[in-house]
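Chain A, query sequence.
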Amino acid sequence: MRHEQRLCGANRPFVGIIETMTNALQKAFAAASKLPDQDQDALAAAIVAELAADERWEAALAATPDALGRLADEALGEHRAGRSKPLD
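Chain A, predicted structure.
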């Protein structure tokens, strides 16, 4: 069963989701829908993993609100001590 058929099936669990996407995301998913199933699954797994990593990062920062400030202070100290290098 192709993905389009599942989206248009009787239960239609994804109705309304398209309307909440930006045009850019709709175009990206339209392009991805033309890929072979195996590539679509790999792309989906990468997207889900990235979203999960973002959620973990947000949760970690929320749990320790001063952590980002401490990291910034540490980085600034390293820079002032001459232990930083310019980025290319």
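The chain has two domains: 1-34, 37-88. Helices lie at 3-7, 23-32, 37-63, 67-80.
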